[in-house]
Amino acid sequence: MSVIRLIAVFSENKVGQLSKLTGILAENGINIRCVTIATSEKFGVVKLLVDQPEIAWRKLQEQNLTVSWTDALAVEVEDKPGGLHRIAEALARHGINLENSSGFVACRRAILLVETSNPQEARRVLEEERFRLLTSSELMAI
Q1: Is the pTM for the entire model greater than 0.70?
Q2: Tell me: the pLDDT tens digits for 113-129?
Q3: Residues 109, 60 share a domain
Q4: Across-strand partners of 44?
Q5: pLDDT by residue (tens digit) across 69-87?
Q6: What letter does residue 41 receive in the DSSP assignment?
Q7: CB-based contacts of 138: which residues, under 8 Å, 6+ apart?
Q8: Which residue of 14, 31, 87, 91 is 20 to 30 Å from 133, comparing CA positions?
Q9: Are both 108 and 76 inside the same structural domain?
């Protein structure tokens, strides 16, 4: 199964934390392709899709940042009203919870990164419903 590996960085929600994180990546020539940031009052999680995930993970960990992997599926979505709804509805019909998601539009293609507790089953359902799932290399080529 071709899952997309996102880097998740847990961090305090304070001035300079994102700058530290992005500085480490920039210094090591790592390109951020997609980012999501979710915060609570004192802490947050930054999820990154990068072009060199293994190097990024190592460099961030070397700087004592709390880093983990998150698996996602990359689904091509119709770039029109209802595109996201079709995916959410298909997963719900099969009892799969969409736990986290982020998306972007590039080169006239809408891409949704989908995180579920059971990516293998989500992949099966999405393929059965005729959604196009992208590999990591396809995603990086956009």
Answers
A1: yes
A2: 999 989 999 999 999 99
A3: no
A4: 11, 39
A5: 999 999 999 899 999 999 9
A6: S
A7: 74
A8: 31
A9: yes
Tell which residue, 50, 37, 22, has the closest CA to residue 102.
Answer: 37
Quick one: 93 exposed, middle or buried, by C-beta within 10 A (0-12, 13-18, 19+)? exposed
> Can you tell me the distance from the alpha carbon of 12 to that of 10, in angstroms, rounded to the nearest whole number?
7
SS3 112: strand
Residue 49 has which token pair?
Answer: 């899709």
Helix axes 17-27, 53-62, angle to 10 degrees: 130
Distance from C-alpha of 78 to C-alpha of 95, rounded to nearest angstrom: 22
- Amino acid letter, 98: L
- Among 70, 87, 113, give the residue marking a domain's end: 70
Q: Of 70, 94, 116, at which residue does a domain stop?
A: 70
Q: Tell me, what CATH number does 105's domain have?
A: 3.30.2130.10
Question: 131 near 75, Cβ under 8 Å?
Answer: yes
For residue 80, give its domain range: 71-141
- Residue by residue, DSSP assigns 98-118 as --EEEEEEETTEEEEEEE-S-
Is the same domain home to 65 and 76?
no
- Report pLDDT for 2: 78
Instruction: Please report, as a single letter, which amino acid is at residue 64.
Output: N
